[in-house]
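Dear colleagues,

As part of the handover before I leave the project, I'm documenting each prediction I ran so the next person doesn't have to rerun anything. This entry is a single chain, and its sequence is reproduced below.
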Amino acid sequence: MLAFSHLTATASDRAAERTRALAGAPPAVLVDGLSKRFRLPHQQYHTLKERALHPFASRRYEELHALEDISIEVARGEFFGIVGRNGSGKSTLLKCLAGIYSADQGRVEVSGRLSPFIELGVGFHPEMTARENVINNAIMLGLTRKQARTRFDQVIEFAELEEFVDLRLKNYSSGMTVRLAFAVAVQVDADVLLVDEVLAVGDASFQQKCFDQFERLKSEGRTILFVTHDMASVRRFCDRAMLIDRGRIVDVSDPASISSEYREINFGAVAHGDQVAESGGQARILDGWCSEPGSDERIDEHMQGRRCIASMDVQFDEAVEDPSFAITFRNNMRHTIFVARSDTHGPTGHFEAGERVVVSFAFDNWLAPSRYTLTPSLAVAGSVAREDDVAELEVTAAHRSGGVIDPPYEVEVTRT
C-alpha cells in the first residue's frame, strides 16, 4: 500500500512538473491574427475551350472565410491538440503553419525545424520501389543521403514491409503506403511536428505503433500540433487543446474541457452544460431513475407512446433560492435527444440547508426505439451539480420510423 501511494504521488508530481516546465518555456509556434480566405468562382472553367466559348460568362466570386483572426501560442515541448468539425479550418491552419498556404492577414512564427505530417506520401512516385521512395522522401524531408540510408532498415521494420521493399509503390495498398510514409516521417529530426489525422488510417496494431511514437516524441521534448477527431487521443497525449469552429477559435483549455465542448458542438449539450461555475458545493444529486405514473417501481424498459417519469433525488447542503433542475436523455451515440428544464415553468422556490427533495419530470415518451441514458442536473448561483448517465432506459416500439423521435402526427391526402 505504501509503495502504491508513493507511485501515485510520483505520477502526480511529474504531471505538475511538466505543467510548470511548459509554463516557463519559450514559444515554439506563434500565430497572431491569422486569417485565410479562398475565392470560389461562380463559373468554373476546366479547359481552354470552355473559356474560349464563354468569354463573357460571369466571373464573380464568393469568399470562403477559412480562418478568422486566429491567435495562439504553443510552448516549446508542448503537445497541443486542435479539434473541430469537418470544414472548421483545422487543416488549413496546419497548411498555413507549414507554408503551403500563405496567410491573407496576420503572422506565423515557428522556432526550429518543422516537419509536416499533413499529407503522408506526398512526393512518393508510384513507379519507384519502396527502397527508392524511402531514400528520396527522407532527403526531401531534410535528412542527408547518408542519414537516409542509415535509417532505411528502421523505416522498413517499423512499416512492417520487409517482404515488399523492392515492390513498386503502384502495387501497394493504401494502408501499406501510409505505413511507409509515416515510418519515414518519424525519422526526421524536427523540432516542431504538424500531425493531421494520421491515426485515422491503418489497423489497430499500426495505430498502437503511432501511439508509441507519439509518447517517444513527447518525452524527447518535441513540439507537436495534433489535429484529430479522436477525443481519447486528445486526453491521452495533449497538454492543452484548442476547439475551432467555422474558422474561429471557440476555446483553448485543458484536454478534458475541450473534449466536452467538442461533443456538445457535434452532438448537443447536456442541460446546464453552458453554465460557468464550479461543480457541487450547494447541492448534490444522490440518484436518478425512470418510472411510470402511479408506480414507485423503477424501470429500465419502456414502451413508446406511454407516459414516463424521470426523477432525481437531491440533497441541499446550503440554503438556495430558485435552483434550476433538468434532465437530459442521450442515445448510445452520445447525442443529446431530449432535455427538460424546470426554469421554463417558473421559479422553484426556496430550499433550506439539509433539505432533501425528489424532482420529477413527466412526459409522453415518443423517443425512437433505442437505449438512452439519463443525466440529471441542477444549477444555482455559484455551482452546478450533475451526475452523468445515472440510469438507462430501453425504449421499445411496434414500428421503427428511422427518426430520433416519433411524435404522433396526422396524414391528409387532398386530390386536386
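The CA atoms of residues 281 and 383 lie 6 Å apart. The first helix runs from residue 2 to 23.

All the best with the project,
I.
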